Amino acid sequence: MTSADAGVGGVGGSAGRATAQVGGATAGGAKLPTPTSIRTANGIAAGSFLLPNVVLIVIFTLLPLVYAVVISFQDLDSLGGTSWAGVGNYVKLVTDPVFWQSVANTGVFTLFTVPVGMAIGLAVAVLLNGVMPGRAVFRTIIFLPLVVSGVATGVLGAWMFDQNNGFIDKFLGALGLPAISWQSNGGWAMTAIILVTLWQRIGFDMLIYLAGLQGVDPSVQEAATTDGASGWQKFRLITFPLLGPSTFFLLIMNLIYSFQVFDTVWAMTRGGPGYATTTVVSYAYRVAFDEHGPQLLGYGAAVGIAIYLVTLLITGIQWRFNAGRDQTD
Predict the structure, then answer these.
(1) Is the pLDDT at 30 greater than 80, yes or no?
(2) Do residues 261 and 109 touch, judged by C-beta distance below 8 A?
(3) What does the alpha-carbon distance between residue 57 and residue 65 come to, in Å, rounded to a whole number?
(4) Which of 264, 240, 250, 239 is CA-nearest to residue 204?
(5) 312: confidence class by pLDDT, cuts 50, 70, 90
């Protein structure tokens, strides 16, 4: 075969391949898929995987949320009486002193659990990130309380801080110290809840900070050591700034948790004594399901919607700052 014949054949082969690609012609009797058909098949496959999750979200999240909004505009109690209240429940919410007390309690709980827990978690993460014997065992021990359910943690905390037969008061008595009224005194009851929550949540903070510390480039630390930086200077000027994403994530997640805490509080004190340890979520539960007499389901739904709006605000702030940081980077 001459070079001219080969060139003609090559041109003909290229033209045939181009025709097959453009027109979806057959190759060996099988029709080649077009880009449109590929996108359609991928869309169907993705939809088949997403559909069960979407159905569950609609049934167990969106529909209850819409129903809660509707109930919040009604005077609905557990005895079956129903009437349209308009914004009456929300007006009552604004003027309800117990609600604002629960907001203040939630603020105190947040103030003493979020920053303190993050600081202790960071310290433990830095300690366990270095070379030390048995660090895997210590990591497991510190993380283990997070695996236990909030109700079980609350029951354990109620036993430990029982003012009559609790382990803490017996330990204080063995040291010759006076017993503390953990359950009858509002301040000490809140202190007990904060201590149990810190014990439970420090493992989560430690885990996230450990993941962040694994991403710090060792060469940067070595360069700072070569320049004569002390350990505290390396941590303050290099390590901690590089942990910014981890700190921001923990701040948002812990704030959301603190505004939604219920199980530990309810298992330990049921919001008492009085309303001294009642948080916004436990207050919504008390007025809707646990108060004596007819439970105010409509008013409890209004409290729940207020909690949802606060959580939505925190999430929106997270998205806003994340977007700003990504654009800056």
Answers:
(1) no
(2) yes
(3) 11
(4) 250
(5) confident
CB atoms within 10 A of CB 150: 18
Q: What is the pLDDT of residue 19?
A: 43
**What is the token pair recorded at 223?**
């360069």
Residue 103's pLDDT is 92
Query: Residue 271 — left, alpha, or beta (φ > 0 → left; ψ -120 to 50 → alpha)?
Result: left
Tokens of 126: 């830095």
Model pTM?
Answer: 0.78
Beta partners for residue 83, in sequence order: 75
Strands 30-31 vs 74-76: parallel, antiparallel or unpaired: unpaired
Q: Cβ-count burial of 142 within 10 angstroms (0-12 exposed, 13-18 middle, 19+ buried)?
A: buried
pLDDT tens, 234-260?
888 888 888 988 988 898 889 889 988
Mean pLDDT, range 152-156, rounded to an integer: 90
Q: Give the gyration radius of the chain's Cα atoms.
A: 30
Taking a C-beta distance cutoff of 8 angstroms, is the pair 19, 25 a contact? yes
Cα gap 65→72, rounded to integer Å: 11
- Helices 297-328 and 63-72: crossing angle, nearest 10°? 130
| Cα–Cα nearest to 105, from 267, 272, 256, 263 | 272
